[in-house]
Design brief:
By secondary structure, the chain is mainly alpha-helical. Helix content is 62%, strand content 8%. It has 2 domains: 64 residues, no CATH class; 70 residues, Winged helix-like DNA-binding domain superfamily/Winged helix DNA-binding domain (Arc Repressor Mutant, subunit A). The protein contains 6 helices and 2 strands. A two-stranded antiparallel sheet has the order 1-2.
């Protein structure tokens, strides 16, 4: 999955710490093209039903999507905590819990938490080793960024 390349084999993390110009992850990287399209509709509409997302996505010049496909994506996005869900008659209405930037921050925070929970001090050692090799200016930016949430 493209959104996970940051953690394996050096990849994006190694490039960032070497001072490279790594791009920021996008919602497509995290959710894939269909999940991202569904989230974009939820952000655009504010509140969506399966039918409203199907209608919006099928109005585009691409392969038509089945109602059940979109329903599955919405349920999964809800289960991952990206959408809230409220019953409205026989259907559910979904709302995004955050905008794209905040959602990407949430995903990043969860990824770090998962890695620390799984690998503990070994993960911290690896990050520390890479940080020690980082460009000093980048290291200062990372420390400043980490300090922003503390104040």
């Amino acid at each position: 999955m493209p959104g996970h390349c940051i953690w394996y084999g050096g990849g994006l993390m190694a490039e960032v710490l070497r001072g490279g110009d790594a791009r920021q992850p996008t919602i497509d990287d995290v959710l894939g093209p269909l999940g991202a399209a569904v989230m974009r509709e939820a952000w655009a509409q504010g509140e969506v039903s399966v039918a409203s997302v199907v209608a919006a996505l099928n109005a585009r010049p691409s392969r038509p999507l089945a109602y059940t496909t979109v329903m599955t994506i919405l349920v999964r996005l809800h289960e991952r905590g990206f959408l809230t869900r409220q019953r409205s008659g026989r259907h559910f209405l979904y709302r995004p819990v955050a905008g794209e930037h905040d959602l990407l921050e949430l995903v990043g925070r969860r990824a770090v938490d998962d890695i620390l929970a799984r690998y503990g001090s070994a993960a911290l050692r690896q990050f520390g080793e890479r940080l020690a090799d980082a460009d000093p200016e980048l290291r200062d930016r990372i420390i400043a960024l980490a300090s922003q949430d503390e104040g």
